[in-house]
Hints:
The protein is an all-alpha fold. 93% of the residues lie in helices and 0% in strands. Helix 1 runs antiparallel to helix 2.
Amino acid sequence: MFNFDDANKKGKEAVDTFVKSYTTAAQGWQAIATETADFSKKSFENGLAHFEKLSGVKSVEAAVELQTAFVKSSYEGFVAEATKLSEMYADLAKGAYKPYEAPVAKATAAAKSAVAA
């Protein structure tokens, strides 16, 4: 027989789980967006400062040396930022899934019990 109290309880649990997951995901996306904006601003400022330095150079050798150092530091900064963002994305995925771990484990156990019986 259908029990409305159990159905209501399970519905509330499902909504609570979704809200926890959504909240975690929203916070993660906000952190990623902030980090990306900060990196973009920093990169723009560094590029502008480099251009100002480059415009004051008197020799080709000095310009090449300055450009080489800038490209190297820009590449290293990009790789570091990409690594940081990939870790943030992984944390986002783990955090968004975490509220579902217990219900999924419970459902899996129930399914195994039903199959075994």
